[in-house]
Structure formats: structure tokens, C-alpha cells
Design goal:
alpha/beta; five-stranded parallel beta sheet; 492 residues; 21% strand; single chain; binds adenosine-5'-diphosphate
């Protein structure tokens, strides 16, 4: 990938966003400005869909579902369409990645891999699943036949966040479409651009009109209307716990739609003195929290280090952290891009202020960076001496702030790891195989990385426990969210 091509794409003006309803691009009731996190200037506008706009999008999804233009299309034909979409994502990969970075701020080196790259792979994975997942024949008595079918649920509402719009969007859209549903997507207001482009590519690939609709706009208006719609059968969401709680209330107030929530975490990354390579662990611990400026749901945001090696480990970690290049996310050598919004940046700084007030010590970082650019940047921040009662230990920052806590032995490590309301991800660094397995069994989270952190691909589920959510994104398990079971019980 060359910088000149990225610069050229990044210089292009961005047209005002529209809504995609019933295969047509239409204006919304209002508009929302989109600010660039790179320089704080207005980049473009997106449509702000009203409750009426959302109702139209849901009705078009319902009509498409009922007439079977997609839901009853031959599986091999649906598969071909989703493969064509994956081809188009690959063909437009750089354009999609650059567009996404312009409103969300992820460093381009990461966006290129994590955004179009993983979205294309996800569409291919579920395209292939379409004609390989079978129903079941129940082990009944010989005078009856029990056939268990899996049917699409109908209309899926998908509300997605701003940190990896294409990747997380694809985790929801691909299995929902693959199983024959219609989708109404609501991107985050600060990361809609790449998903609007994806929707255009979906039309080009042959997803029929009305099957995939996009409504942009503020969460409290557009998102709320989608979550309250009686035309939405299943709601899938990635975002904050506060919004997740509201979605459950909207479901209760409307049609009891099933809600699958992925709500972030406060993931422990546990380093034992017997780790196979402490230097590698220190570098990985920095990457685990600071890439995408910490705006990663599985970020290793609580570092637990065995007391024996704590000081040396923190020194090495701080050295690696200070070397990370913070800056313009559109530059290929940037390792820590922009914080998505000013609100987010101020929240991050508030966490640091509270941490020092509560007795934590800043080893490096702690401040806004590159303020003269007008953009939203923050120095990667390490805080030591963080205790379980501190706010920084308990709450998700969703920014480049790492909480470090020492532990004495394995029992304390496990206790500290589980001292959280969240349970999304974890890491364990040890050369002791038995200890690694004990920790994997003991830690309550959806994934436990061993001697690595992050990078789990589409073949394995991402599934939170405790207040990190429910239901799986990725893997064949995700198909369960988008299908209903139906039994045919036949007397022979
Ligand atoms: P974050 O705090 O990380 O921005 P949010 O949960 O606020 O996370 O946002 C995730 C997604 O949820 C975004 O698309 C946002 O617009 C949407 N959202 C926010 N509030 C609501 C709401 N009350 N109802 C429905 N969707 C919402």
C-alpha cells in the first residue's frame, strides 16, 4: 500500500450521506454534521433519519422478507451474491479503509487489515455457510418423524458502534443476510461513511432492493426508533452498557424482540513471571491496549503483573509505549490514531484525573496530544498502583489508558482477573501449561488468549459473559441469533 494513493483518496470531498430505503437513496428528515477526528473540522453531513424514516426502512425490509425475493432465493444464488459483495469489498478495500478512517480515526495500517480485510472474509465465511448448514432429524420413535428446520427470523435491526464499523457491521450483516433475513442497519453517527459505501456495494453485488436498508442519525432518535419498531424481529447491537440497557427496555415496551448485546469489557491481561518471553509480553501488552487508541472492545485494559517482575516489566512496557507513533491516522507509520470524538477524549482525560486522585501513578502519557492540529489525540497512558476499588479498575474507558495492578500468586491473579462486572476477553502469559489451562478455566470471559493477545479470527465466537453481553458474533454459532427453530412432527 502506498502513501500517495491514501493521500489522494483522503483529499476527495465526501458527499452528503443519504438513507438507503427499499433500494433507493433518499434524504432523511434532517442532517447531522460529521466532524473529522483528524483536525476537528466538518467533513460532511449524514442524513438524520426520523422515526417515520425508520418505519419506512423497516416496512421495506418486512415487504422484501415476505415476498421471498431474498428469503426464498435458492441458497446457491444467495451465496453467489455475498461472494460478489466480498469481491467488491476487496476491490474497493483502500477506498473503504480511507473513508472509514476519515470519520472514525483508526490508524490506517490497522484499518486496512481490520476493516475491509476482515469484512470481506466475514462475507465469504457466511456465504460459504449458506449451503453447508443442515437441519436435523430427531431421534424419535419409529412411527413418527421429527424434522427440525432453521428459518430466518424476518427483519434484523443492527445497531453498530464507531470503532470498527465495517468489521463489526459485517459480523452482524453477513450472517443475517446469509440466513435469508432482511436487515435495517443503524451505523454510529461518527462512523457511518464506510458502511454507506458498503451498502452501495451490496446493491451492486445484487442484494435485492429492500433487503438491506441503512438509516443513519443520532442514537436517541434513529436508533431508538429502530429498537422500538414492531417490524424488527431481532435486534443485534455492539456498544455501551448504558445503551444496551435501554435497548432491553425498548424491546419490553414494543414487541419483545430478541436482543443480542455486545457491551465491551475491562479485560485482564495477566503476566506471570514464568512467561516464555517477558519482552514480547511487554510489547504485546502495549499493542493490546493502545492500538486504535484503546477503542477496541477486547482491549487488554487491566494489566495484572506478578509482583516479582512488576517493576522491570512496567519499565519495558513504558519504553515500548513511548516509542508508539501517535498522530494522523491516515499516515501509514502511525501506530496510535485519533480518539473518535471530543466527548470521548474528554471522558478519557476524566478517567486519568480520577485515577491520580484515587492514588494511581502515571508512568507515561496522561494528556491530550497534538492539540495544535485541532484533532482529538491522546498520549498512550499507563497508570500503576490501580486497585479494584478504583474507577479505572472497574469502568471501561474505551481509550488509550492502561491500569496496572501487581499480584502475589496465581490465586490472587485469578481473583483480580475476575473482580469485574465485565467478561469479554482476557490474556494469560505463562510457560506453565497446567497454569495456563487453570487460568483459562478460571477466568470468566468469552475468550482467553494464551501467550498472545487479540487477533482471533472469524472461525471462533466473540461472546461476552456477565455484563459484557450475550450471544456470539462470528463463527457458525452466530447463525443461531438469526434463525428460529421450527419442528415438523409427522405421524408415519
Ligand atoms: P459509545 O458510548 O461507545 O458511543 P453507544 O452505545 O452510545 O456507544 O453507541 C453505539 C451505537 O448505539 C451507536 O450507533 C449509537 O448511535 C447507538 N445508540 C446510542 N444511544 C441509543 C439509543 N438510546 N437507542 C438506540 N441506539 C442508540
Amino acid at each position: 500500500m502506498d502513501q500517495a494513493m491514501i493521500d489522494r483518496l483522503a483529499a476527495a470531498p465526501v458527499a452528503a450521506g443519504k438513507l438507503l430505503i427499499g433500494g433507493e437513496w433518499v434524504k432523511g428528515a434532517g442532517e447531522t454534521p460529521v466532524l473529522s477526528p483528524i483536525d476537528g473540522k466538518q467533513l460532511t453531513t449524514i442524513a438524520a433519519a426520523s422515526a417515520d424514516d425508520v418505519a419506512r426502512a423497516c416496512a421495506s425490509g418486512r415487504a422484501a422478507f415476505e415476498d421471498g425475493r431474498w428469503s426464498r432465493m435458492a441458497p446457491a444464488a444467495r451465496k453467489a451474491v455475498l461472494h460478489r459483495l466480498a469481491d467488491l469489498i476487496e476491490k474497493h478495500a483502500t477506498e473503504l479503509a480511507v473513508l472509514g478512517v476519515r470519520d472514525n480515526g483508526t490508524e490506517i495500517s490497522m484499518a486496512l487489515k481490520a476493516e475491509p480485510g476482515s469484512a470481506a472474509g466475514t462475507f465469504r465465511y457466511y456465504a460459504e455457510a449458506i449451503d453447508k448448514v443442515y437441519g436435523e432429524v430427531a431421534p424419535t420413535a419409529s412411527n413418527v418423524l421429527g424434522l427440525i428446520h432453521r428459518e430466518p427470523v424476518g427483519v434484523v435491526g443492527a445497531i453498530v458502534p464507531w470503532n470498527f464499523p465495517l468489521m463489526i457491521g459485517a459480523w452482524k450483516i453477513a450472517p443475517a443476510l446469509a440466513t435469508g433475513n432482511s436487515v435495517v442497519l443503524k451505523p454510529a453517527e461518527t462512523a457511518s461513511l464506510s458502511l454507506l459505501r458498503l451498502a452501495a456495494l451490496a446493491l451492486e453485488a445484487g442484494v435485492p432492493p429492500g433487503v438491506f436498508n441503512v438509516v443513519t442519525g443520532p442514537g436517541r432518535v434513529t436508533g431508538e426508533a429502530l429498537a422500538l419498531s414492531n417490524d424488527v424481529d431481532v435486534l443485534v447491537f455492539t456498544g455501551s452498557g448504558a445503551t444496551g440497557r435501554r435497548l432491553l427496555q425498548y424491546s419490553a415496551q414494543s414487541n419483545l424482540k430478541r436482543c443480542y448485546l455486545e457491551l465491551g469489557g475491562k479485560s485482564p491481561n495477566v503476566v506471570f513471571a514464568d512467561a516464555p518471553d517477558l519482552s514480547a509480553a511487554a510489547k504485546a501488552a502495549a499493542t493490546a491496549i493502545f492500538r486504535n487508541a484503546g477503542q477496541v472492545c477486547v482491549a487488554g485494559s487491566r494489566l495484572l503483573v506478578e509482583a516479582l517482575v512488576h517493576d522491570a516489566f512496567v519499565d519495558e512496557l513504558a519504553t515500548a509505549t513511548r516509542k508508539m507513533a501517535v498522530g494522523n491516522p491516515l499516515k501509514l507509520d502511525t501506530q496510535v490514531g485519533a480518539v473518535n470524538s471530543l466527548t470521548q477524549l474528554e471522558g478519557n482525560l476524566g478517567f486519568v484525573a480520577d485515577a491520580t486522585r484515587e492514588g494511581g501513578e502515571i508512568v507515561t502519557g496522561g494528556s491530550r496530544a497534538l492539540e495544535e492540529t485541532g484533532g482529538y489525540y491522546m498520549d498512550p497512558t499507563i497508570v500503576t498502583g490501580v486497585r479494584p476499588e478504583h474507577r479505572l479498575y472497574r469502568e471501561e474507558v474505551f481509550g488509550p489508558v492502561l491500569a496496572v495492578t501487581p499480584f502475589a500468586d496465581e490465586a490472587e491473579a485469578l481473583r483480580l482477573a475476575n473482580a469485574s462486572d465485565f467478561g469479554l476477553a482476557a490474556g494469560v502469559w505463562t510457560a506453565n501449561l497446567s497454569r495456563a489451562h487453570r487460568m483459562v478455566r478460571g477466568i470468566r470471559s468469552g475468550v482467553v488468549h494464551v501467550n498472545t493477545y487479540g487477533g482471533a479470527d472469524v472461525t471462533v465466537p466473540l461472546s461476552g459473559v456477565k455484563q459484557s453481553g450475550n450471544g456470539a458474533d462470528k463463527s457458525l454459532h452466530a447463525l443461531e441469533k438469526y434463525t428460529d427453530l421450527k419442528t415438523a412432527w409427522i405421524q408415519l
